[in-house]
Amino acid sequence: MRVMGANEWKHAPSLAAMSNRTLRFHLSAAKSGGAYRLSARKSAAKTSVALKVDLSDRTDVDRMSPSNDIVDKNLDSWNGVAFVSDPLDGPAEFSGLFSGRLDLIANKRDLDFRIDLYELTSQGEYMALSFCMARASYLKDRGHRHLLAPGRRQRLDFQSGRLTSRKLQPGSRLVTVLSVVKWPGAQINYGTGRDVSDETIADGKEPLSLRLLGDSFIDVPVWRGWRG
């Protein structure tokens, strides 16, 4: 695989061998500018990040994202929340698939979400690294649906779907955006628990409401050292 930003090719016998360390970042409720903190420290037990999305509101049906390029000056967090890490204090190579866990309470029996991972360079540019897009009810078993329990705490383990290798520069930050899938060309999951193809806009009368709790995190595989 080619290591972006390093102008070199590398080979590994397995996915696990692409990295020699995993960096864990917690999705913190602490604010960082207009976003939240992607923190090396776990949040306090009672803190949470709220997200509410009106799935029946289709006034955004023709909306165009302000960030459409792999490298862009803009970050699109529409129907989502963004988390930003502290600057990296040394070079690191992100190689492999990122993974993590969403520790949350939802008011629906299902939801579709996307998690995007970026490098924010010291020049203020967002480099798209990888993403995960999933239907919550199929995370445990793609062959059998496991619906959520509305109003109860649950944990959703996920893994990204795009293999990536990128040399991260000192001074860059990692940014992740958690968003609810609701855009033109994508099926909307209204969360009733019925077959999503049989749902209608009337099923979205009650907005989707999430509370992201303190055990939420992402794991980023890296090669070589990084001090954070």
Which helices and strands appear, and what pairs or packs with what?
Layout: E1 2-3, E2 8-9, E3 21-32, E4 35-39, E5 48-53, E6 71-72, E7 80-84, E8 92-96, E9 99-106, E10 112-120, E11 126-135, E12 153-159, E13 164-168, E14 173-180, E15 208-213, E16 217-223
Parallel strand pairs: 4-7
Antiparallel strand pairs: 1-2, 3-4, 3-16, 5-15, 6-11, 7-14, 8-13, 8-16, 9-12, 9-15, 9-16, 10-11, 10-14
The fraction of residues in strands falls at 35-45%
Average per-residue pLDDT, rounded, comes to 92
Low-confidence stretches at least 5 residues in length (pLDDT < 50)? none
Rg estimate, integer Å = 18 Å
Q: What kind of oligomer do you see?
A: single chain
Shape: globular
Span between N and C termini? Answer: 26 Å
- The string of secondary-structure elements, in order, is EEEEEEEEEEEEEEEE
How many helices? The count is: 0
Work out the number of β strands.
16
Question: What structural class do the secondary elements suggest?
Answer: mainly beta
Q: Which percent bin holds the helix content?
A: under 10%
Major sheet characteristics: 14 strands, mixed
Overview of this structure, please?
The structure is a single chain. The chain is mainly β. It is 0% helix and 43% strand. The chain contains no helices and 16 strands. The chain is globular.
